[in-house]
Input
Amino acid sequence: MMPVPDRILVALEPVDFRKQIDGLASVCESRLGEEPLDGTLFLFRNRRCTSLKGLMWTSGGFTMAYKKLEQGRFTWPCGDGDKVRMTRAEVAALLEGLDVSNARRLSRWNPANQHDNTPEPR
Output
């Protein structure tokens, strides 16, 4: 089982799914400008949005997960730039086939930003 970290980044553009661990780690560095060894879970999709791969560094090595839909497509998030941050709940919804793009995020109190009334980042 793959642990789910607090930091999850989703690549907005599709990647060539012939890429395996080393190729996806290279995409993290070159295209996303991120360090693949920091424990972040990176999610990638194929061009048709029918498959996704997850890549994460865990205890001395990379872990990669792959999901291929037999019917339908993933509803991939939109955003500016090359990547978007998602919460665990949003990733769970993505994997279950739910479209959260029009969902309204309710504001939550967080002691870390008690002077800031803006919602937490996606």
